[in-house]
Amino acid sequence: MKRMLLDAGMCLGCRTCENVCAAVHSRAGSFTGAVLAGEKPHSGVKIMQSGSGEIFAKRCWQCQAPACVEACPVGAIQKDLPDGAVWCDTETCIGCFLCEEACPIGAITRLEAEGHPFKCDLCRGRDGGPACVEACPTGALTFAEVDEAAYEAARDELVNHQKGAR
């Protein structure tokens, strides 16, 4: 299965990925258009820096067995097969935000005004895959086939690291 990966050594922290994500997921389809239309664009990826200066991308890992999908009482959070994109059907969502509470990574944003969560959906339905990967000026973000066991182990390591940092 294809997964999104970040090579932190190549990341400049320029936040191009955040801006492109916000633009693609806006009603206007562009960052400037969204701002001019009064939208508050949201990004499913956030570039962050740890206390030690390490750059990392806080984003949905599209888990094999997503806790957010399990937590949703109405089935609004879904996982597409075979591509593995985890997404929110905003028409079905009741705004309980149990998915946000269930996410071990904290990759789901609560959009109170809209009444639903927002998260990376791998630009579901977009030709060319995730826009953030396409826009990354250094190629630090990639979307490639990975060893699932290693990917899940890295996710678990991140979850455990976050638990220790709280």
Beta fraction: 15-25%
CATH class: Alpha Beta
Span between N and C termini?
31 Å
Q: Which consecutive residue ranges, at least 5 long each, have pLDDT under 50?
A: none
- What assembly state would you assign to the polypeptide chains in this entry? single chain
Q: What is the C-alpha radius of gyration, as a whole number of Å?
A: 15 Å
Q: What's the total count of β strands?
A: 8
The secondary structure category is alpha+beta
Helices and strands, in N-to-C order? Answer: EHHEEHEEHEEHEH
CATH fold name, please? Alpha-Beta Plaits
The main sheet orders its strands as: 1-8
Name of the CATH architecture: 2-Layer Sandwich
> Number of helical runs?
6
What portion of residues is helical? 25-40%
Biggest beta sheet summary: 2 strands, antiparallel
What's the layout of helices and strands?
Blueprint: E1 2-6, H1 16-24, H2 31-36, E2 45-49, E3 55-59, H3 67-71, E4 77-79, E5 86-88, H4 98-102, E6 109-111, E7 116-118, H5 131-135, E8 141-145, H6 148-165
Antiparallel strand pairs: 1-8, 2-3, 4-5, 6-7
Task: Describe the fold and architecture.
The radius of gyration is 15 Å and the shape is globular. It is 29% helix and 19% strand. The chain has 6 helices and 8 strands. It is an alpha+beta fold and 166 residues long. The mean pLDDT is 91. The N and C termini lie far apart (31 Å).
Structure in a nutshell:
The chain is of the alpha+beta class. Helix content is about 30%, strand content about 20%.
Provide keyphrases for this structure.
single chain, 166 residues, two-stranded antiparallel ribbon, 6 helices, 19% strand, globular
